[in-house]
Amino acid sequence: MRFLLSLYLTGILCCHVCSGIVFCQTHSPLTLAFASNIDGDWEIYITDTTGKTPVNLTDNNTADYYPTWSPDNTEIAFFSRRDGNHEIYVMRSDGKHQRRLTNNPAVDKAPSWSPDGKTLAFASNRNGHFNIYILELASGNLELLTENTYVDEIPIWSPDGKRIVFQSKRHFNWDIYTINVETREEQRLTYQPLMDTYPAWSPDGRFIVYASMRQDVDQADFDLYLMDAADGENKKVLTDTPEDEAVPSWSPDGHKIAFQAEMDGRWVIHLMNVEGTERRELINNSAWAAQPKWQHPSSELTIDPLYLQYTRWGEIKTQ
């Protein structure tokens, strides 16, 4: 409930490559990346919506979080504390060639790839408080996008590359904002008295799904909501349970949402239709599984399980 996601927001969920991985052409591509601590520390895994055994891509003894695919699906960005503090890293989508992109004593986290693949947005507190930065990958140039004395986190690029949506704690509460990358004009989309967090764009850019805490009679928990991206209007609840649902990710075809759901004091991964129907469990193991992210629709990356040296673990739930 509130405590579970509060741990997540404060950074508790804040390189050795798995060998034997051979990617080839099959009928069932891996379409989801996620993070799990099933091996004792947080690692980046990939699986697909049929529930194949997840593959550990990072496989090292420190924490790796928050995967995000490049637009052409050849690489995955993430953040890791393998060098002593949280930095932004990138690897090929088979887990090879893992390399660090940022190098600063502060915390760099939650990367998001621009649609043209040329830049990464991320959050950093290198100026004393968290703001949104944009890293130009070719040159290494770093640009400060938001600059205030509050907390701006979890940047996500719009599909057209013109705006970034993020969560901010500006009025003593978490709300959802967008910023025009060129003009720096900001727009506040949520105003309710409790927390609104983890926004994600629909593939056509018309809607934003996010996690919102609403107060019931005796408890407050996070449910997933949908709103118009242009102005925050027409808010609609998608989940309505006593447990938390958070960190949604929209499928490339716009029909499904993957998200992390609370179960027995930990996170598991669920899928549902965008209307909130036909919800099902995808990843449920003896540890935590969180931060699902879909591949982009142009992917030809597929995997033949016969050639995988997988990490066996948990229980995969399918329909």
Number of strands: 25
| Distance, first to last CA | 26 Å
Question: Major sheet: order of its strands?
Answer: 20-21-22-23-25
Please compute the radius of gyration using only Cα atoms.
Answer: 18 Å
Q: What is the top-level CATH class?
A: Mainly Beta
The CATH topology name reads Neuraminidase
How large is the share of residues in beta strands? 35-45%
Question: How many domain regions?
Answer: 1
Mean pLDDT: 85
- SSE sequence, one letter per element: HEEEEEEEEEEEEEEEEEEEEEEEEE
Gross morphology:
globular
What is the percent of helical residues?
A: under 10%
Give me the CATH architecture, please. 6 Propeller
Let me know the largest β-sheet. 5 strands, antiparallel
In CATH, what is the homologous superfamily? TolB, C-terminal domain
Structural category: mainly beta
Low-confidence stretches: 6-10, 12-29, 301-319
Counting DSSP H or I runs of 4 or more residues, the number of helices is: 1
